[in-house]
Amino acid sequence: MGTVLDSHFLALTALVTVGYQLVFFIITALLRFDKVTDFAGSNLGKLAVFWIFQAVWVWTVSLPVTIVNASSRNPSIEARDIIGWIMWAIGLAVEAIADQQKLKFKNSPSNRGKWCNVGLWSYTRHPNYFGEMFLWWGVFVASAPVLSGAEWLVILGPIFLTLLLLFVSGIPLLESSADKRFGRSEEYRTYKKTTSPLIPLPPVVYGALPDWFKVAFLLELPLYNPGPERDPVS
Prior knowledge:
- With about 230 residues, the chain is an all-alpha fold.
- About 65% of the residues lie in helices and about 0% in strands.
- It has one domain.
- This is Steroid 5-alpha reductase C-terminal domain-containing protein.
């Protein structure tokens, strides 16, 4: 295991991650890609913060891949491999489709000043983040047959990603931004009340569920709902 968790090897992967994230940062800052500009707009300081978070994020969540690629163990394919690959494929598809749907929605002049509520966005308010979480948890599940001893600590990667998106730089920021822009709209408040924050569900199902169930099992956290200074959503 010493070679797998070798500090020089991990440092090299960190440098590579920082390098290609820097390229990503420059390209997205110039082209104003959706996820970046949703968070930072044209503020270079916020873009830099986004980049730092993104670099730490990518290096951390990719640790299962790093460990698997460095390991000399070669177990036969197990059910966990197949489950993990399926999770990865579903997550990638959901994230890609959601991003494309939102891009198409925002590029339509008739949708100017509206929030995206079409396609996957009608089943969850953040399908792209659901896809990203599902994708990286799939990577972890697929790497599980190779892990041994302290290598299981790579579970901190998808945990870090999940906590980051749920509580820090993902959903909370976008929820706050949307509430400020659309919070006075009755249609928006209805959309938010009947649409799951993360886990895709039909609006007719989610809207009929009691609030305590949404909070306890479907991640409708108080953090995502407006305080006294904004219009109430529920």
